[in-house]
Structure formats: structure tokens, C-alpha cells
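the two lines:
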Amino acid sequence: MDFYPTRTQADLKATARRYLDDRYPLERVAQLCQSGTPHEHWTELAELGWLDAELGTVELALIAEETGRTLAPALWYAAAGAALPCYRAAGVEPHGPVAFAGSVATCDARNGGERWALHGRLALVPGSRSVGEIVVAASTADGPALFAISSDGPGVAVLDHYGVDSIDPLRRQADVELSAAPARLLAADPDGRLLGTVTERTGMMLASEGVGVAERGLELAVDHATNRVQFGKPIGSYQAVAHPLAEAYADVELARSLVYRAACVLQDGPGGEAEVAAAVHASTRCAVSVCETAVQTFGGTGVTWEFPLHWWYRRALWLDAHLSRTGPLDTIADTVLG
Amino acid sequence: MRLSDSEREREFRAAVREWLDANGAPAGPGAPRVWDAAALREWSRASWKAGYAGITWPTEYGGRALDGGYQAIHTEECALAEAPDHVNVIGTNMVGPTIIRYGTDRQRSAFLPRILSGDALFCQGFSEPEAGSDLAAVRTVARSHADGFVLDGEKVWSSYAHLADHCLLLARTEPEGPKHEALSCFLIDMRAPGVEVRPLRQMSGDADFSRIALTGVVVPEDRLLGPRGGGWRVAMTTLAHERGTFGIALTARLSVQFARLVRTAIELGKDRDPVVRKDIADLHVQLEALRHTGYRALAALERTGEPGPESAILKLRWSSVNQRVAALGCHLLGEQAQLGGPGTFWGGYWQRQRLRSRTNSIEGGTSEILRGVVAERVLRLPRSRT
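prediction for all of em together
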């Protein structure tokens, strides 16, 4: 066993950190969050090699930790985790940012000869208003299949009723209504294998993102506890402040181990549903609680709009809510207790 | 990064399993077997003969000079097979490596081979009634004497002391000076006149630990381990060795305990209760997180020679998960948990575990001390003590 990033993997992570720290410093993230303008740095992602088909799941996990740590705004996880493998199954590449909707239960595909048309509703699709194409999992007469649709094509209505008030402004979502929306078939997936694979990959990557979010929250809090002086001493020297941060560190490392384990299991594939569920459960819980500990450490500053910590807390809350649809604890209970 | 064994590791693991199948006690249903001292000695001796004592020790001292990954595999497989620790686990895992590092040639040849064979059983004499978390405050005194030193004092929370032949003991040799430079380590003969061992009974009724009273115990000069006044460093080396594969042992035993919890839920028909299912699933996540953090810490140790910072949290979080498992075990019993003893489910196993598990967050470093270690040494927060 060698459960530790290799030299090459550690380099990849360090490079990602340097690039993202440089590109998305605290103030810039706050600015992007406030302006609410979508920001898909697709060309840069391609140049960085983060869209390469050769990236393994461990590599995806390591990058996702860093994108979470900096709240990098692109919907990279949806593209690299889910959409691209579907395009590649068809031997094609998308031309720009793509979103993913795995909504087999609410979306039907009907075939009129050579032309496919999608009907139904895609609930809460992140990025549906900022990308060119959406990859959609729909049910056909022969089981699930994966399609690409144009987000502004005929028969596609991106519903705006949630307004701009997503809890995380960098993960703006909308429902998408499809009525005979023309679609390109990317891959028939009768046994649901491709859909399962990409669902587990994105779950793992979002869990990894959660670890990065928590890590940054902890970093900010530790920095503050070291420098903020009250009663004549840095507050981090008081055990009432220091010990919750030690527990937060434990939460981060434990969640990280589960993410790496899920990444290794997915790399060796197939399967990995229970491992991803464990990573998701630990990571979302840790992201939320560590951000809450960080807010508490910052005291009054921590609860202001001006101080950027809440953007990380918002991402943690988004992850927790977004991933709750997978019911991670139920999955684990079924594995352990049948 | 990979989770699977290398081919050599796989072969080693298979051999360990095969040996355990042939020589271990088969794990039966219900509460685990309780090993008496004679059985424990016999098992440990067989384990040594099979080459499973001192796996990482240098070959010149009877070891196999394998890397820590193999020790981890052996530790894990033993725990999963519900085999006990080597009766001399303190000797093989803590005292031996310390003697290898600090001992004289005579001490090495006198103790090391006998530690592995189980002929020189060791315990450890660090904590005292007035020196718990503040270990450097030990009051046991070692005064110079014509034949070496004479020791007076009291040690507490010593595991295996009732069986031990020797004790690695920390005492004050210098009455003056900074407290960390006034201590020395000794290899004490537990049969020497003036050494008295009394069991310390815990609230669970178990007596896993002893109290050692030392009254005018004469210790020859050549039983000083490391430099006089250098006992703090020696003791810290001993405690550091506790950390290597210790986390793996803890989590593997926790896996077995968790499996008992699952069996209990099923036997009591509680496995369909949605609240129980959620609790068990959550504990499973925590257990797997600990297990894989142990693997990660081990890989970091192999890679860099230093235990990674993540190893600092294993004992801290293992204790709280083990306590939660025992608590849920009791909750599953419902009203039955009012009772204890042979007539109740698994002979009162969960009730005893509930009481015993409170020790977990105190023994081997309290959770408060461990949080302080993480805060100061890992997060680099300013020191709380001046």
C-alpha cells in the first residue's frame, strides 16, 4: 500500500495551488461573488491540462481540493467529472463550458428517426445559464442515454424564478424545461454504467472541493487566532479558541483521507458508491462545521458581509444541500446493514 | 497513490493470515474471548517463533528489518483475527526501539533478544499520582548509591506491570535545575526488593493497569538508559514509538468492535430502525476515515521518515468513536442496559465497554493534551502555557 500522493501528483497539486492563489486571491473572489457574473475560464482550464482525458480520479481529487480552497468560479467539476467523459464516449469534444444534468427520472428522450428530442424538466442545474451546452441524462425506450443540448436552443427554457439569490453566487442554478428540445445522442447507456461512473466522479470531486473549502476556512481562522490580541495575548493561546481549531483540523484530515480513498477506488473501478458516499458525508459535514468554527473564531468580523469568509461558508452550505440528494448515509446504511 | 498491497505485501499478508488461522483463537460469536496470562504467553512465544516479533527491528537484534508497512499488516491482521497483542507489546514496540537507540552494547545484548522471545517482559513506569499530563513533574527520586542508584516513589497506570520482569522507568536524578533536564530513565528489575505491584481497578471492574510502589529499590549503575539527566528525551523517544503503527492497531480493533455493534443491532432486531441505521452509518464513516488516515500517516512515515501531521489526530478521534460505539451498544439494549453480568446480552459486554471506554480519552495522553499538541505543533498556534 502506498496511500500518499506520488511526487508527480504532489507537483500537480502544488502547481494548481500556485496558479489558483495567483488568479483568485481573496479580494477577487469576493468581487466575483458580489458581481454575480459567470466566469468560465475554459481556455485556461484546457491549457492547464485540467480537461485532459488522461487525468485519473486521484488527480481530479487533488485539483478539486485546490479549486475548493480558492472558490475558483468555473464549473470545472461538472465538465471534467461528468460532461467530458460523455462527449468522449462519442469521440467528440465540446467547444466551450458545459454543464451536466443527471435527471433520468424527469427527462424522456424520443426518437423521430435520426433526430432526438428531449422532454421534461431538469431540476436545479448548476451553470445552466452560463454554458453553451448541457449534457443531459434522459430515459429512452432502451434505458438511460446521454445527450447534449444547446442551452439556448429551441424548446429549452432556462427558468429564472430563483432569481440571482443562490446561496452560493458562484454556483448559480436554474431549472430547465425541455419541450421537444433537439438533442445529440452522445452515448446509449442501457445498463446505466456511464451515468453511474460520472455521478460517482462528480460526487467524489465535490467532496474533495469541500475539503478544500474547510481547509481554507481553517487557514483563515488559524491566521486570525495567531494575530488577533485580546487581554494582552494572541487569542489562539487560549484553549477555548485553540481546541475547536484542533478538532477542525482533525475533521479536515479525516475527510481528506476518505476522499483519497474514494478517488483510489474509482481509479481502479468499477463500483465505489459506498466509498463516495462516505467521502461526501464526511466532507460536507466538515466543510460546514469548520466554516462555522472559523466564523466563531473571527468574532464580530466573521459575521459581516464585508469579510469574505461567508463566501466559503456559503459554498459549504451549497455542497451540503446539493449533495443531500444522493442520501449518503442511506447508501452507507444499506451497505453495512443490508 | 494506491490502496492495494504490493505483491510482496500481499504475500506477507497471506502468510500472516494463514499462520493466524492455524495458531490464533478462532473468533466466536458474541463477546470476545478473554485471554489469561498463560495463554497470552504461549501465543506470544509461538508468534515470536514464527518470526512475527520485531518485524521492523534490525536483524542483528533478532528482527527482520522490514519496513513499517509490514508491521502494519501484521498488526492489522492480528487485530482483525481478534488475536491479542504480544504479551510484551511494550517491550517490542516501545522499550526495544528505545534501547536500540540509547542503550549500551551490554544493555542491547542483555535485553533485546529476550524482549522478542517474551523472556524479558516489560512494563512502563512514567505516570505518577502527581505527574499525569505534566509528565516532567515526576517525583520518584533516584539518589546516587554505592551500587548505582536507590529509588523511592510511586508509579501509576502501568499496563502489564503484574506480569512484567522489567520496567522502563522515569525518575528524578537531579534535585536542582530545569525540570526537563533533571530526569533519567532506568531499566528496573521488577523482582528487586522494594518493588511492590498492586492492581488499579477501573470503574468497569477491569484491572488493566497497576500501581508500582518503589521503596529503597537499588538499581545498578549499568541499568541507567541513556545519559544521566537525559531521561526526558529518552522517554519522548519511547512515546514516539507508540505512534508508528499504533494508530493502525487502534483502528483495526475498532473495526472489530464496530462489527460487533452491527451484529448486536441485527441480533436485537434494531437494524431496520431508521435512527439506528443513521447512527451506525455515521460511525462507519468515522471508522473508515480513521482507518484511511492511519494508512496515509504510515505512507507519509515511509516516504519522509517522519510521521505526518495527520497522525496526531488518530488517538484523539479513535477515543471518541470507540466511546460512541460503546454508547450505541448500550442504547441498543434499551432497558436491558439497566442490568449487567452473565444473564444479560453477551454477558454484559456493552455495559462493561461503556464504562471501560471512558478511559480511552484519558489513557496514553488525554484528549485535552492531544488537542493542545495539534494546536501548537501542527497548527502552530501560540503556546497556551508559558
